[in-house]
Amino acid sequence: MPEPLWEAAIALAETEGVYRTARALSLNYQSLRTRVAEGSPAVPRGFVELPPPFPLATPGSSGPVLELVDRGGAKLTIRLPAEPTVDVEQLAVCLLQRGRR
User: For 23-58, what is each residue's pLDDT tens digit?
Assistant: First the structure.
C-alpha cells in the first residue's frame, strides 16, 4: 500500500482505534498497530489546560486515582485529593475529544 494511504490509516486509527480502522479498511491489524506505535510521539501532541487552582494530591495521599485512556492509547493518570474539587467529567471529555479537533 502506498505510504500516503498508510499515513491516512494511521491518523484514522489514532482517533477511531486500531481494530476498528483495520477492520473497516481491510488492513492487517498487526501491521497497522505496529505503524501506529512507531508513529506515536513520546509526548502527547495536544494538551488539556486546567484553570488554577488545581489541587493535585501529594504522593501517598489517600485520594482516588483517576486513569483515562482514549482509543488511540493515550493515557492520563491523576492522583486526586481525598475530596477532589476537579470536574472529572469535563477532564475526561477534554482528553477523549482532543484527537477530534
Answer: 999 999 999 999 988 875 544 555 566 555 555 555
Asked if 89 and 97 count as a contact pair (C-beta separation under 8 A), the reply is no
Measure Cα distances from 21 to 4, 27, 67, 75 in Å: 16, 8, 24, 20
Distances (CA, A) of 16 to 8, 51, 70, 73, 75: 12, 29, 9, 11, 15
How far is residue 96's CA from residue 40's CA, in Å, rounded to a whole number?
16
DSSP 100: G
Which of helix, strand or coil describes residue 48?
Answer: coil
Quick check: 21 and 27 in contact, CB under 8 A?
A: yes
Residue 80: its H or E element: none
HSE-CB of 88 using CA atoms within 13 angstroms: 14
Are 87 and 37 in contact by the 8 Å Cβ rule? The answer is no
Q: What is the pTM of this model?
A: 0.42
